[in-house]
Design goal:
By secondary structure, the chain is mostly helical. It is about 65% helix and about 5% strand. The protein starts with 13 loop residues before the first helix and ends in a 17-residue tail after the last helix.
């Protein structure tokens, strides 16, 4: 399926507009699924703070994006900042109307594109929250969501979806159809996963996670039921999300949507089976939380290529994601001492990058793989350092890490004054004795 450049995209019919709007109304189920997974993989004494944090970070991100971020994303058009170098035009950032001025009179496809970006910025904001679980302060999480929504995400959205320089790699350098990211594998998941890595670097591991002798102490999530139910919710949202992305950014006809949905399901299923097999081989029994991470990694990888690949290719993409997910989660923890309770760095960051790479491998357009590699390089070489710089400065103003007493009693009592499970004894932490 070859995407049509935005300048020559056909006008959207009323039927296709209604279908895309309906799909986007289901997309928040993906956000709800990730929120439940974030909560379930954390400690029971921080469960209420975890779920409230997902809501609060999403709300802050949406508000900040509406106030300023949407202008820089440039989806509604108006002016753009274009640099000229090496005889080429480099569309760097949008300068559209602030406060969503003119939204009601914008073209139908632009309105839907902006709605898609609202969902995307909310998802990108909550991905790091799960990685910082049990020690990241709610105020700091909200501040980081504001930074992502106001500065970093709009850059990625403009470059990828609104005619920015990555999207124009095809026209300017004959690199396939330009950088392709119809479901947000780059602008949402890779960006969210890289932001999660920055949060883990700055906040550090949970107390007691890595004893002095260099071993890693297991801190299992408190609710496998939340995690696995979150996976089912996420599937529904992802099916809708990938289909809407195919319509908006690949200009796919409605007849192509069943294949997109099938590819999404196949990728997730292959990833789950692969993770199930890997964990059973390594541990003697399958691991529920890692299998959930594998399922989610398959969904994330499908965000890049569900609208571009064939069903056999989608099976391969999911299988690879399912194999490397448990191995990478283990390597990050045991080799690099990265404490990532939700696995966001692997599940969203690494799986998103793998999906983007796979989209280039399976494309028939000459130069598409190179275009995807350029986009990945921009994520790692530009946006990752930018996020680290902004978060490091933010940490000086709004400290990320809760004080030791807050970690000991749990983030629920420390920040909210009450726990999620007040009728139960929810923990006995030997590491604080």
């Amino acid at each position: 399926m070859n995407p049509i450049p935005p300048t020559s995209a056909p006008a959207m019919s009323d039927t296709l507009f209604a279908l895309t709007l309906a799909l986007l109304m289901l997309a928040p189920l993906a956000i709800a699924g990730v929120a439940l997974i974030n909560c379930g993989l954390g400690r029971s004494r921080s469960a209420a703070q975890a779920l409230l944090g997902n809501l609060a970070l999403a709300a802050v991100a949406v508000i900040v994006f509406a106030l300023v971020g949407a202008s820089f994303a440039g989806t509604l058009g108006a002016k753009e900042v274009v640099l000229h170098a090496a005889g080429k035009s480099w569309n760097v950032i949008g300068l559209g109307p602030f406060l969503l001025h003119g939204l009601g009179s914008a073209a139908p496809q632009a309105q839907l594109g902006l709605l898609f970006e609202f969902m995307a910025v909310a998802m990108a904001a909550i991905i790091p929250w799960g990685s910082g679980a049990d020690r990241w302060r709610l105020a700091a999480g909200c501040a980081s969501a504001a930074v992502l929504a106001g500065i970093v995400f709009p850059l990625a959205a403009h470059w990828i979806w609104a005619g920015g320089w990555l999207r124009e790699l095809g026209a300017n350098f004959a690199l396939g159809d330009g950088f392709l990211d119809p479901g947000g594998a780059a602008a949402v998941h890779a960006l969210g996963g890289l932001s999660a890595l920055v949060v883990v670097w700055i906040a550090g591991p949970r107390r007691g996670k890595f004893p002095k002798e260099g071993l890693s102490l297991a801190m299992p999530g408190h609710s496998a039921a939340y995690v696995l139910f979150g996976c089912l919710l996420a599937l529904v949202g992802w099916l809708a999300w990938n289909a809407a992305g195919a319509i908006l950014w690949l200009h796919a006809p409605s007849s192509a949507l069943p294949v997109t949905a099938v590819n999404t399901l196949l990728s997730a299923s292959a990833a789950l089976v692969a993770t199930f097999a890997v964990t059973r081989f390594r541990f003697g029994k399958p691991d529920a939380s890692l299998c959930a991470n594998g399922w989610l990694a398959g969904l994330v990888a499908s965000s890049a290529c569900a609208g571009l690949a064939t069903p056999p290719e989608s099976l391969f993409v999911g299988a690879v994601a399912g194999i490397f997910t448990p191995l990478m989660v283990e390597a990050l923890e045991l080799v690099l001492s990265i404490d990532d309770p939700s696995g966001g760095v692997t599940v969203h960051g690494a799986a998103g990058l793998w999906g983007l790479l796979a989209a280039g491998f399976f494309s028939a357009a000459p130069g598409q793989l190179l275009a995807q590699l350029v986009g990945i390089a921009a994520l790692l070489g530009v946006l990752l350092p930018l996020v680290y710089l902004l978060f490091a400065l933010l940490n000086r103003v709004v400290p990320f890490r809760a004080d030791p007493d807050g970690e000991r009693i749990g983030m629920d009592l420390h920040e909210l004054g009450g726990g999620a499970y007040p009728d139960f004894v929810i923990h006995r932490d030997e590491s604080y004795r």
